[in-house]
Amino acid sequence: MLDDLRSIVELETHSYDKPMLDEGLDTIRAWVLDRLGSPDTEARHTDTVRGDVLELGYAGTAPGTVLLLSHYDTVWPTGTLVGWPYTDEDGRVTGPGAFDMKLGLVQSVWALRGLRELGLPHPSVKFLFNGDEEIGSPHSRPYIEAASEGALATLVFEASLDGKLKTARKGVGLFDVTATGVEAHAGLDPYAGASAIHALAEIVGQLASAGSRELGTTVNVGTISGGTGRNVTAGSAGCGVDVRVAEPSEMDRIDKVFAGLETADPRVNISVEGEWNRPPMTPNDPSRALFATARKVAAEAGWELEETAVGGASDGNFVSALDRPVLDGLGAVGGGAHARDEHILVKHIPERTALVIGLIAALV
Predict the structure, then answer these.
(1) How many Cα atoms within 13 Å fall on the side-chain side of residue 334?
(2) Is 304 found in the same domain as 232?
(3) Which of the 8 DSSP states describes residue 217?
(4) What is the Cα–Cα distance from 172 to 313, expressed in whole angstroms?
(5) What's the domain count of the chain?
(6) Which of 9, 54, 245, 338 has the smallest number of Cβ neighbours within 10 A?
(7) CATH number, domain at 227?
């Protein structure tokens, strides 16, 4: 498994590097077929800009299908490996994308291989590998939603949180606010202009106050820009906003906040663009039952499986919003997602892979 992990990590697959994504997916496909044989069903959904979606189906020995969901894109630009190579030392593996989430991809394939080698009855398995998760899954979302329909379970191989499965995630909204004012000379004619920057400063305050700690809603103005010079009343300014919500009803409230943004100077126009990238993952009854099964599998193996809620989103959010059974965080134990200290704790790999094997077998 570690040899496979190294091979996959050394495929640089940055979300915005289409040629490398295509090359990486070709290699992943060949590797899966080498490990599992030719699939019974196969589909590749192409895109001219984003990473393709690959679906590979393998017939089981029992009714039903389990969807194993993994993304192969990473946040790391092509060339990162030069200064940060794959390293395996003292039970700790590091490398760009190792934790998020290339080990999960490897574990999913080895789980099916394990089911076969152990001779355990199991449902059919469908793998879905997508290359745009880190940028919101705009291409792959409809294929994920279609593939999860009727599945006994969707298992998402994102990394765990200290070994805990992720049964709740926040929804994400990404928005851009633009203020358009009137330019003028700041010294010669200071009152002829209408400052977009001054107006945007008011807007930022309104957005910051829209968060709710009690409801788990955060509103972060993460970028801001505007103006052309110190002595010019700014004609334009803008900010990028990240919104996270734990409750679905909060999306409507935040939409109203954006719709109601206003400034003291009526000459400044405010416009908003953006959308809700992912709905919240809130525990539903099918997912609760699925976690109970996973917890029982772990208990039978002699350890306690825990669950948690996190602020980050994943493709599991799409499945949960459709009230379908989904478990997330079945991948690596370690830490440092999207950071240079991204790492995997090797000792947990057998245990986590065995959990997936037992969980799939328990769905028969």
Answers:
(1) 30
(2) no
(3) B
(4) 7
(5) 2
(6) 338
(7) 3.30.70.360
* Rounded Cα distance, 9 and 332, in Å: 13
CATH code where residue 334 lies: 3.40.630.10
Q: Which residues, 6+ apart, have CB-to-CB distance to 256 below 8 Å? A: none
Quick one: tokens of 8?
A: 């996959």
- Can you tell me whether residue 14 is helix, strand or coil? strand
For residue 129, the one-letter residue type is: F
Residue given tokens 């478990």 in the structure block? 327
Residues 6+ apart with CB under 8 A from 112: 36, 58, 68, 122, 125, 360
Residue-range definition of the domain harbouring residue 162: 2-169+281-362
User: In angstroms, rounded to a whole number, what is the distance separating the alpha carbons of residues 280 and 218?
Assistant: 13
In the chain, which ranges are E strands?
41-45, 53-58, 65-71, 87-89, 92-94, 124-130, 153-156, 165-169, 171-180, 218-226, 236-245, 269-278, 307-310, 326-327, 334-335, 343-345
**Is residue 126 within 8 Å of residue 67, measured between CB atoms?**
yes
Mean per-residue pLDDT pooled into runs of 10, the chain (364 residues)? 98 98 98 98 98 98 98 98 98 98 98 98 98 96 98 98 98 98 97 98 98 98 98 98 97 98 97 96 97 98 98 97 98 97 98 98 98
CA distance 348 to 341: 18
Q: Residue 152 has which token pair?
A: 């006994």
Tokens at 127, concatenated: 């793998």
Among 331, 313, 342, 314, residue whose Cα is nearest residue 80: 342
The CA distance from 332 to 103, in Å, is 6
**Which token pair is 170?**
């926040």
Looking at the structure, do residues 115 and 185 belong to the same domain, yes or no?
A: no
Amino acid identity of 67?
A: L
Q: What is the pTM of this model?
A: 0.92
